[in-house]
Amino acid sequence: EDQVTQSPEALRLQEGESSSLNCSYTVSGLRGLFWYRQDPGKGPEFLFTLYSAGEEKEKERLKATLTKKESFLHITAPKPEDSATYLCAVQPHSNDYKLSFGAGTTVTVRA
Amino acid sequence: DTGVSQDPRHKITKRGQNVTFRCDPISEHNRLYWYRQTLGQGPEFLTYFQNEAQLEKSRLLSDRFSAERPKGSFSTLEIQRTEQGDSAMYLCASSRTDRGDEKLFFGSGTQLSVL
Lengths: 111, 115
Prior knowledge:
The complex is a heterodimer. Chain A has strands at residues 3-7, 10-14, 19-26, 30-38, 45-50, 56-59, 62-66, 70-75, 84-92, 100-101, 105-110. Chain A is mostly beta strands. In chain A, strand 6 and strand 7 form a beta hairpin. By secondary structure, chain B is mostly beta strands. Chain B has strands at residues 5-7, 10-13, 19-24, 31-37, 44-50, 53-57, 65-68, 75-79, 88-95, 105-106, 110-114. In chain B, the strands form two sheets. In chain B, strands 2, 4, 5, 6, 9, 10 and 11 form a seven-stranded mixed sheet that branches. In chain B, strands 1-3-8-7 form a four-stranded antiparallel sheet, with no helix packed on it. Chain B is globular. In chain B, 35% of the residues are buried. The A-B interface holds A 4, 32, 34, 36, 41-46, 49, 87, 89, 91, 95-104 and B 4, 6, 31, 33, 40-45, 48, 50, 55-56, 91, 93, 101-109, 111.
């Protein structure tokens, strides 16, 4: 069964203090790895899809990278509005309709 | 693109009652998904539709749960004889599979509390 483990569970940062979130996964044939942002009481909001090892994608202060076993979400010089839970999910080739999510990393950025 | 809409946003019910949730996907999306999320966990897959056909159901979806998507448009998720363990956020998502970019767009969810 596909498994996704995210670490740390929670991260408290000072504004401007860069850091990285980890997503380790096991999947029988990766079709895509997804990063989502979720604010309290809201549904997940799409950030990135990565398809192959070595791929990188950026959006504002966020950068996602992918290896064969894990993905990282780097937050550069975060601002308070980056506070959210960041979810990682894998999509297998065999059951491409089903995303398996990790439990998420809750990021709090203090001004 | 008006996004995925879910109704109601919150539902409080007593154990044993039936509840129904509605989801309106993004209009040109052919796939519709239901996920469930409990506090501190990521969303868990429940079921999905390709147009109007329900193609897969998770073992999490007991026989008290039923989902429909008539005419391939909106979808409903009904829970019969609710139990306290059904308390969760029920998320609907949709996607379009004909462009090779299958990212899911989620609605804001329906928060169910079973007393």
